[in-house]
Amino acid sequence: MTVGTRMVRDDRTARELFEEVMANPARRKFGFGQRLAIVNVDFQRAYTDIDTFKTAYETDPRQIEYVNTISRLARERDMPVVWSRVAYREDAADAGVWGTRTDTPDSLQNIKYDSERHQYDPRCQIDASDLQYTKRMPSAFFETPLASYLTWRRVDTVVVTGGSTSGCVRATAVDALSHGYRVIVPIETCADKHESYHFANLTDLQLKYADVEPVQAVIDWLEAR
């Protein structure tokens, strides 16, 4: 007798599957801890400026507004806010194998330090007290100061925002869980190029690695502090 699952195939969209998973009241949550950090991933013009760059994308038009709100609320409660983005050397050697699939002006490894593509989106309200750094790989944790900074700040919960949902947000969320943090992914604060990638990865995060929540849940938790 088979007790496991053979891969299911049906005609539901990724969004429909996500809504079904989110509607399950029995799904146990990791929950919030005592101190959170807001980790904002890749809010740089290469990925947010849809009027200028082909690599940019938009899901919820209020995404950055929501990120600014939860970042401000965290700061006011002496909880850390972090901004990470990507850029590479002129020869792109530090992109490694990730930079070998294509080589066009729009390619990942051709985001150079201090270029327009490297600039934070001007709508982002970044404070001088926020931690800012440039990363090379998908996760905001990989070979960066993030883990030691969160330890110093006595954080136990990581709220991950940014893009893409299927790429750097997911990688950061998985690494956050792997480092022992509770992970919250606010739905409206994440973006991707296609709703299929977006909702499929939110579903997977909810089932395995994070609490995928409306951004209002983060706002309510912070305002109650």
Compute the number of helices. 7
Radius of gyration from the alpha-carbon trace, in angstroms: 18 Å
Bulk shape: globular
* Oligomeric state: single chain
- Given as residue ranges, the uncertain stretches (5+ residues, pLDDT < 50) are none
Helix and strand content put the structural class at alpha/beta
End-to-end separation: 52 Å
Number of beta-strand segments? 7
Structure characterization notes:
There is one protein chain. With 225 residues, this protein is α/β, with parallel strands linked by helices. It has helices spanning 14-22, 45-48, 63-76, 146-152, 165-178, 195-209, 215-223, and strands spanning 36-41, 81-86, 131-135, 157-163, 182-186, 190-191, 211-213. Helix 1 (14-22) runs parallel beside helix 6, helix 3 packs parallel to helix 7 and helix 5 (165-178) runs parallel beside helix 6 (195-209). It is globular and about 55 Å long. The mean pLDDT is 97.
Topology, please?
Layout: H1 14-22, E1 36-41, H2 45-48, H3 63-76, E2 81-86, E3 131-135, H4 146-152, E4 157-163, H5 165-178, E5 182-186, E6 190-191, H6 195-209, E7 211-213, H7 215-223
Parallel strand pairs: 1-2, 1-4, 2-3, 4-5, 4-6, 5-7
Helix pairs in contact: 1-6, 3-7, 5-6
